[in-house]
Design brief:
399 residues; alpha/beta; Rossmann fold; nine-stranded mixed β-sheet; 11 helices
Length: 399
């Protein structure tokens, strides 16, 4: 049989599976089951958390371990050495508006290494060090093209430079190819013991691990303000950006764009993509233990409002798109709302209303920001314009 015919059969089969997935998924609010969220501010021993010291010393570590053990896997912290080398530099990129650096970050452990290729544009017109946005790029590598031959709203580097921000990005495949048969061919070569553990790191965790290694580099990059770095991700990258910010408190701000299931939306609503579906379609993203909760969301010891809470008191901006019901816009807004009690421990009041704002309306002046863009599952210029506004507000930078 000709390859073209086989490809057509595979494509049609894929469409059939996706159609069935969406047919089985609930998009009717009336069919959302009654649910009770796990208590954010009650320890596993039943003690109520009433102040930030109790949160930081007791409850936060508990919740972090629950996410590690049941969903995202451990994030190993040890490595033998890390090296940085400049592979390309142009101090007058973007017609003199930016300083381009292409940096190779190489991490070594037990005679093996992994390489992270970082693209970094730094604005020339602002006082250094400059605040930064770091994107976990889960699309084609040309979406973050350092030559700027290819330009995309997915990573509007020129607009970021004009707004006064360093625009940085790395590709997720450097850490773990987004393929269930190949994902171990990256950082997990350094940590093979994780593959044998039911609560071991998988692809999402590997991408978060990579973001932290970039943050290691920022600690020694004089042109970047290491205290004003925002981590950004879209879709699966948005899941990883939340997990990155929860794990690594050096990130000052988190953006999770259209992250949906096991990102910013509540699992217990059973709306749109559910745990069984994501574990079936992407078995390499989360740890083995997560499969125990397929069709059993109510048994999870955590829900995604608790992941957002782990980022407190640092700001979180989450988004949705009106035609992306698969990612449950209402469930994302509710997860933010249910994270508010943790921010209250830090005397931070959010600007979120009782109901989600109307589409294309952004909540900016709040430690928990949100918008639901008119359109489809994507990351666009509209989204980025609001990320920049959110950072201006929280970094106290002049627009």
């Amino acid at each position: 049989m000709k390859a073209s015919v086989l490809a057509l059969i595979f494509f049609l089969a894929t469409l059939s599976v996706k159609a069935q997935d969406h047919k089985e998924s609930n998009y009717d609010e009336a069919k959302v089951p009654a649910y009770t969220l796990p208590a954010m501010l009650k320890t596993q021993s039943g003690k109520l958390v009433t102040n930030k010291a109790q949160w930081e010393q007791s409850r936060r570590p508990e919740i972090l371990r629950l996410f590690e053990d049941n969903i995202y896997g451990q994030v190993p912290k040890d490595y033998d050495s890390i090296r940085y080398s400049l592979s390309n530099e142009d101090k007058n990129a973007m017609n003199g508006k930016a300083h381009l650096k292409e940096v190779l970050i190489e991490v070594f452990r037990q005679n093996k290494s992994v390489k992270i290729n970082l693209v970094l544009f730094i604005p020339n017109h602002v006082q250094k060090p400059a605040p930064a946005f770091l994107l976990i790029n889960n699309r084609a590598k040309d979406q973050t093209d350092p030559t700027r031959t290819v330009k995309s709203d997915f990573w509007p580097a020129e607009e970021g430079i004009a707004a006064g921000y360093t625009m940085a990005a790395f590709h997720n495949a450097d850490l773990a190819p987004d393929d269930p048969k190949l994902f171990m061919n990256g950082v997990l070569q350094l940590y093979p013991e994780q593959l044998a553990a039911d609560n071991g790191m998988r692809a999402i965790g590997a991408w978060a691990w990579g973001a932290s290694r970039v943050m290691d580099y920022f600690q020694n990059e004089a042109l970047v303000d290491k205290d004003k770095v925002a981590i950004v991700g879209q879709s699966r990258g948005g899941k990883a950006s939340l997990w990155t910010a929860a794990q690594d408190q050096r990130f000052a701000l988190c953006v999770s764009n259209c992250s949906g299931s096991t990102g910013a939306k509540l699992a217990r609503r059973e709306f749109g993509e559910r745990i069984r579906r994501i574990n079936t379609s992407f078995p390499h993203w989360f740890n083995t233990n997560y499969k125990k909760f397929n069709d059993k969301e109510s048994l999870l010891p955590v829900d995604q409002h608790m992941l957002i809470g782990l980022v407190a008191p640092r700001p979180v901006y989450a988004t949705n798109a009106t035609e992306d019901l698969w990612a449950d816009p209402k469930g994302t807004f509710l997860a933010l709302k249910h994270a508010e009690p943790v921010y209250s421990l830090y005397s931070l009041k959010t600007g979120l209303g009782a109901e989600a704002p109307v589409p294309n309306t952004a909540v900016i002046q709040s430690p928990l920001g949100y918008h639901n863009r008119i359109g489809v599952h994507n990351m666009t210029g509209f989204d980025w314009a609001n990320f920049f506004r959110f950072a201006v507000y929280h970094f106290k930078q002049k627009p």
